[in-house]
Amino acid sequence: MDSPWLFSPDLIVLGLFLIFSIAFLAHSGAFSNIARALIHGNLALQDGPFSLRKAASSYENYRKLSTNESSRMRVASSSILRSQRRLVHQLGYSQKLDALDASIHANAALTEKIARLAHHDYPASFPITSSFPQKSNALSGDVGRVREALKHFVRDWSQEGSQEREKMFSHILEVLERVPGDERKEQRVLVPGAGLGRLAWEILQLGYDTTANELSYYMILAFRFLLSPTATNRVNQHTIQPYSHWFSHQKSNNALFRSIAFPDALPRLSPAFHLLEEDFLLLQPPSPTSPSPHAFYSSEEITSLDAGYDYIVTLFFIDTSLNVISTIQHIHALLRPGGT
């Protein structure tokens, strides 16, 4: 008997998912960029939320945006009743804001170096006549992504983050360690949503040909800062105060404003370690021949129809997808037959 459904239930569910997703994005005011990305599978829009210019501008303006924020906090504290101001003074709030300002300037020394590296590495993306620093139209919300990147430095590339990495990475690495060591160099691993690249780098240490893939230039620029021998040439070269903007959930001011050194290791690109700066949904399977070492690639440069990855590692990735179905389908398309 013919089915009473004009369309299959699977197609109906997928259609409803897309309709509700687009409706939500339109209601939130993000339709023009993000909804278009949902439909076409491309979040790497030139002026999108994760774009190069937006990220570089945000790193460049971290000092200004954060200082403006602390100034508003001072104004707010001075507007309370005189009797309350006395109590606030006794509690040391003014000194706390002084410490916040000092941490902002310490962190800005790093974020401005990252912005300079962006101008150096991507000269075609910035006006030839522009100087650094330059005036920018970065929104105040952008500074939140920069602050998250600072915390990623700690989690991924400091000794302080080692226990958290152990809990996150151990099960993945244990699976990859089951492959005999002499077979690993011929097997390719893709890590989409690689962030600052520590998991990809750990997989490289096991002997695999490893590709880190990242869409957000907030993450890419921070990772490039570590990969650059000019910007980072020794262990624990850099120091930041990454928690100073989060006054809650800290035991003390010492914990809030503590300095953390990084990196605890020096990552470098190599013939077996690659970085793809692109939307995962636009990636193509890699060719059997490894790309040239010490370079960054678009997927078009390493494309082949008869190849793929042996493993795709999706830590902190699938759950961030705007279209989970497309993501899972593309994982299947990128894997070699029998891949995991």
From TrEMBL:
InterPro entries: CARME, SAM-dependent_MTases_sf. Coiled coil: none annotated. GO terms for molecular function: S-adenosylmethionine-dependent methyltransferase activity. This is N2227-domain-containing protein. It comes from Pleurotus ostreatus (Oyster mushroom).
